[in-house]
Amino acid sequence: MTTPFPQTFPATRLRRLRQSGWIRNLTAESVLTPADLIWSMVVHDGDEARIPVSAMPGLERLNVKEAAAAAKRAAKLGIPAIAIFPHINPDRKDEDGSESLNPDGLIPTVIKAMKDAAPEVGIICDVALDPFTSHGHDGLIDETGYVLNDETSAVLLEQALLQADAGADIVAPSDMMDGRIGAIRSALEENGFSNTMILSYAAKYASGFYGPYREAIGSATALIGDKKTYQQNPANTDEALREVAMDIQEGADMVMVKPGLPYLDIVRRVSETFALPTFAFQVSGEYAMIQAAAQNGWIDGERVMMETLLSFKRAGASGVITYFAETAAQKLGG
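User: That's the sequence. What structure does it adopt?
Assistant: Structure tokens below.
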């Protein structure tokens, strides 16, 4: 059989490496496994086992018992860690977020239950005041509504100590106050928690993709104003590197970029610049868009889920915090 273009056709045919599943797998440059996933989970302080979140189809708030059972499932699926976020009874919220320092509150109780159920699964705790404040901000505010930096950091370090004492493996400050990583690291060291790790939300942008999460934790209607005075400007990339560098210097063990998909360029820059474990957060808005489009039959939801998760690995992320963790791990055969 003669070829139509024997002299001019290139010797290299890139499609040779795509012709079968086995060769595509063998030559894959990026690989996603259950060990790359951190399960983002919303917990609540009521008796009802599961409460659906309307803005996040398929997501449910779990009570303490269900969260412990989920930790066992994570262990079986090979998911290494769970990041927990609280939905607090509005009656327990106030301007100062004082419930965040309750040693018998929801988060310490959930941590203990999950560690008892599956001690091999890492527990990551959000360090921020927005789930606990009546105004929905990540910190204390003054009479003008401005979020106070240093006063907030003083509360955050107490919150981190409470979580560490309850058994949290990683505390994850998500508030974007200047200097809070150093304050928390010093407090952990001084109080005997030198092995407690810090995952800093180092590059957290003032994004429109957080809306469904605010419904999930019950702060959507409470939020007064916006968070642009402390979360990063979406226009900036160099600023993200400065934020990350400061947090590393102050003692962060790992860093995070949030949101995920709209900021893959930041993930790439951070991972290449610092060679430190760098995580991406596939936030609620990203999850909700995929789920809503899938429900309408516009996309193959499962395929898009896996494609987006793989994109974080391709961009250089060490792992992904995602609400899809359980489903993705099941598909990956964990």
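Strands lie at 37-44, 50-52, 60-62, 81-87, 122-127, 170-173, 197-204, 254-258, 278-282, 319-322.
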